[in-house]
Design brief:
The chain is about 40% helix and about 0% strand. By secondary structure, it is mainly alpha-helical. The chain has a domain of about 70 residues. The longest helix is centred in the N-terminal third of the chain and has 20 residues.
Length: about 100
Amino acid sequence: MQVFNYFKDLLVRWYKEVKETGKSNKSTRLPEYKDPDTGETLTYDSLMEMFEKAPLSKQFRAFFPVMFTKEFQQGPPKKTYAQAQMPYSLRVENTSSYRQSCHFC
């Protein structure tokens, strides 16, 4: 949850870009995440309200719902999950030799 808390600003920027332009320059997909309590699809406004008022645990559940399923709790994942189940995978890379700028900086 702490890694999520550190990087959640990227999610805010993604939602804001989609709200303002209807698309994202960083992702070909639109966000599909849902409020874990109501099941309603999150918009930029509802995301901001949740980030301001809801506990970190609820925010985390909204973006990683599959982690709270019985299947996931039984062991290592055996399949690739859809975007709405897991928003990103964490990869640490040395990008110092890349000729293009970082997509998330």
